[in-house]
Amino acid sequence: MAIDEAGIDRPPAPALALPPPKPQKPHWAFSVIGIATILGLCYWGELVLAVMLVSVLLAFVLAPVMELFIRLHLPRGLAAAVAVILLLTLIAGLVYYSSNQAIVFVQDLSQYMQTIRQEISQVRERAESLGNTEPGGLAKSADSRSGTNWEDLLTRGFGSVSQALLAASFVPFLVYFMLSWQHHVRSATVMLFSLENRNTAYVTLGLISAMIRSFMVGNLLIGLFLGTASTIAFAILNLPFFYFVGFISGFLSLVPYLGVVLAMAPPIFVSMGRINSGDAVVIVMIVLALHLIALNVLYPKFLGNRLQLNPLAVTMALLVWGWLWGAMGLVLAVPITAATKIVFDHIESLKPYGAWMGE
What CA–CA distance (Å, rounded) separates 347 from 207? Predict the structure, then answer.
C-alpha cells in the first residue's frame, strides 16, 4: 500500500499491460521446403495415392446406391457390398460385350500409330535438317537421343501390367470399407483435431464430401450425354469404331479448358485417310458445339458453384498434376485442387491462398 500526501493508504497504480508478442511468421524458405516435400511425396507415392483417390471418388459415386439399399432395410455392410458388386458387374459386362470390338480397335489403332509415327518422324527430320549446318550432325545426334514422347507422359505411373492389376485389385476393397465405415472414419477424423477446431474440421469435411459427390455425379451425367451425342453424330458420319470414339471423345471433353482440343483428337485420328476435309470440319464443329453446350448449360446445372476455382488455378493444377501423375493426374487435378481450396478457406492463415484460387 502507498501513502499519499493526505496520509491515506491507497493501492499502488496498476502496471501497464504490455501487448502480447506477435507470433513470428515462418520464413518463406520453410514454405518452399514444405511444398517441395509434399510434391516429392506425391511423385514417389503416386501409385498408392492415385489408387486411394480413385477409390474415394468411386465411393462417392456409389454412396447414393448404398443409401438406396439402406432405405430398403439392408444392413450398411450388406448395402455397401451390393453396391460394389453392382459396379463390378457393370464393368465386367461392358468388358465382355465390347471385348471383340475392342481387340479389333486396338489392332487397328496400332496400325494408325505406326503410320502417324512415320509421318511425325519425317516432319521432325525435315525440321531438324532446316536448322542443321552440318549434314547429318544434328539429325544424327537427335536420332541417337532417347526422347520422351507423349505416350510416356500419359502412361507414366501405371508401371507394368501386373503392377497396375495388383493396384487395381485393391480398389473394390477400399471402396467397400470406405462405404461401410464412412461415419466412423468421419467422426474419428474430426476427433483427431483439438476441441476448438473440431467444428471447423466437421464443416470442412462436409463441404469436401458435397463437392466431390457433386463433381463425380455431375461429370458422369455430362460425360454420358456427351458420349451418347458424339456416338450418334459419328455414326451418321460413318466413322470407324464410332461406338468407342464417341464415348472417348465425350469423356475427354470433360477435361477443363483442354477438353475441346483433346476431344477432337480421337475422331480425327481414326478417320485419317478415310474422310475428306469437309467431314473433318464437320467433326471439329460437332465436338466444339457439344463442348460449348456442356460448358454453358450442363456444367452450371449439374455442378453449380461447388468448385469455385478460377481458370488460372485450374490450368496450373492440370499442369502440375499432369506432370506428377500423367493421365491420372489430369483426371484427379480438379477435385484435389477444389478440396485444397476448401481447406484453405477454413484455416485463418491460409485464407489468402484460398481467395487467390477462388473465382
Answer: 14
> Do both 227 and 284 map to the same domain?
yes
pTM: 0.69
Residues paired with 10 in a beta bridge: 2
- Helices 137-144 and 76-130 pack at an angle, to 10 degrees, of 160
Residue 175 is placed in which grid cell? 471402396
- Note whether residue 341 is domain-resident: yes
pLDDT tens, residue by residue, 149-166: 545 544 554 455 677 777
Same domain, 70 and 166: yes
Range of the domain at 324: 307-359
In the predicted model, what is the mean pLDDT of residues 311-334?
A: 85
Could you tell me if residue 127 is inside a domain? no
Rg (CA), the chain: 28
Of 261, 276, 306, which residue is a domain's last? 306
Q: Which long-range contacts (CB under 8 A, 24 or more apart) does 226-235 make?
A: 226/250, 226/251, 226/253, 226/254, 226/290, 226/291, 226/294, 227/251, 229/290, 230/263, 230/267, 230/286, 230/287, 230/290, 233/286, 234/267, 234/283
**Residue 222 covered by a domain:** yes
In a domain, 143, yes or no: no
Task: Kindly state whether residues 282 and 311 are assigned to the same domain.
Answer: no
Residues 53 and 85 in one domain: yes
The more confidently predicted of residues 61 and 175 is 175
Percent helix, strand, coil in the chain, to 5, is: 75, 0, 20
pLDDT surpassing 60 at residue 8: no
Clarify whether residues 274 and 316 are in a common domain: no
Indicate the Cα dihedral angle 32, 36, 38, 44, nearest 10°: 180
Domains held by the chain: number: 3
Query: Are the C-beta atoms of 58 and 217 separated by less than 8 Å?
Result: no
At 66, the amino acid letter reads M
Place of cell 503410320: 115
CA distances from 292 to 42, 93, 108, 214, 306 (A): 34, 32, 31, 20, 20
